[in-house]
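Reproducibility note. Readers wishing to regenerate the assembly model reported in the main text can use the exact inputs given here. Chain order matters: entities are listed in the order in which they were concatenated for prediction.
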Amino acid sequence: MKNDATPKTPPQAIVGFGKHDHAQCKTHGLSRAEAVCAAAKVQLTPVRRRVLEILLEAHEALGAYDVLARLAKEGLGSKPPVAYRALGFLVDNGLAHRIEKLNAYVACAHPGEAHDAAFMICRACGAVAEAEPRGMMKRTAVEVGFQIESLVIEAEGLCPDCVPKASL
Amino acid sequence: MKNDATPKTPPQAIVGFGKHDHAQCKTHGLSRAEAVCAAAKVQLTPVRRRVLEILLEAHEALGAYDVLARLAKEGLGSKPPVAYRALGFLVDNGLAHRIEKLNAYVACAHPGEAHDAAFMICRACGAVAEAEPRGMMKRTAVEVGFQIESLVIEAEGLCPDCVPKASL
DNA sequence: ATTTGGTATGTTATAACATAACAATATGAA
DNA sequence: TTCATATTGTTATGTTATAACATACCAAAT
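Running the prediction on these inputs yields the following structure tokens for the assembly.
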């Protein structure tokens, strides 16, 4: 069943930069989240579920206060910790990622257990695409004896849609 | 403050995790900075020079307000913009890097023109080692047509000194 | 049925990080 | 000198984040 009555104007990808069926990636994301939470024996509560929906609906990375503003409009919480805790939960459970360069959050493209990710962030339109971080740093780390616990790889630049329009 | 759990005893590396001649890396960093600024026809003013010294002297990444506090003690400026401008100048000219995960700054290990870098950040002692970001994301980006302008690669974990002491 | 323990949420207050906007001053070139 | 530009100083505010504590809820143990 699909409830497509939510056309949020420009279709900017979370997974990639191309167009995609947004309603589908939202429903898919939610059902994956249900499964992940059930498997991990953690609760996808109304607030957490709604925050994930908000991220899935958004066409770009959202700041904690952006999320909070949306929650507040729906009476789901109005104070920073509410948003930060829900976002923290989603990140901890591999359902969302924090983009350090933007102090913002996006729904994970491959929900499952917590994992590293690499992002390509378009400075022009704000689109964020998730990529697989391959080896790279891992080798360097092993060489020097550094034990990687988490890895942030963030590229900023222009997405395929924006390259042609680039002024600078 | 942030990293007060840091044992101030051992000299922790900026370039790597091993010991090193700290006085030397400081004087070397400063002379490289002179050359870089001369070549780029930009001014290494007293404030900027002192901020670079502060970073070179520090044994860990410093927040802008940490830097500011040191400047203030010396009468070189006491308001946030002073520190942020100097740090911005150093980053823009490849003399320092911003560590997104920490909202903090370190002197660059290979001063020269602006360049990407990868960091290994020890969550236990705050030591930060700079590594060379090799290929990796670049290929993924080319494949999808993303034009990388800047890249952040940040690993967090335990440095070689802290692995043995690891409790968790 | 009550207590207890765990998880989640609500709230206050504040810490920590960052920049816009404008004034004052210094520096260098015409 | 005079103008233009770069830098610094300052005020005010904006933005992001968390500590600390209170309350609500549910489920298992007594």
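We highlight two features of this model. Chain B touches chain A through 37 residues (CB under 8 Å). The domain at 22-157 of chain B is CATH 1.10.10.10 (Arc Repressor Mutant, subunit A).
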